[in-house]
Design brief:
There is one protein chain. The protein has helices at 8-13, 38-44, 52-62; strands at residues 14-16, 22-24, 48-49. It is of the alpha+beta class.
Length: 66
């Protein structure tokens, strides 16, 4: 059976932690930032963790070898 290909778009958006959780960058921090409060922008800078059911799908379908 041939090797599975990693979906490169997903590989650029997601990464795995040491314990196997899936990290992602939070949305809404690209443009039109003047209407967002400094507190909200501060919290959006930190990475988010996918829920376990979504993470299982990402690991299985998009990132098979990570």
């Amino acid at each position: 059976m041939p090797k599975m290909k990693t979906k490169k778009a997903a590989a650029k958006r997601f990464s795995l932690t040491g314990t196997g959780k899936v990290k992602h960058k939070k949305m809404n921090l690209r443009h039109i930032l003047t209407k967002r409060s400094p507190k909200r922008k501060m919290h959006l800078r930190h990475a988010g963790i996918l829920s376990e059911d979504s993470a299982a799908k990402v690991r299985k379908q998009f990132l098979p070898y990570s």
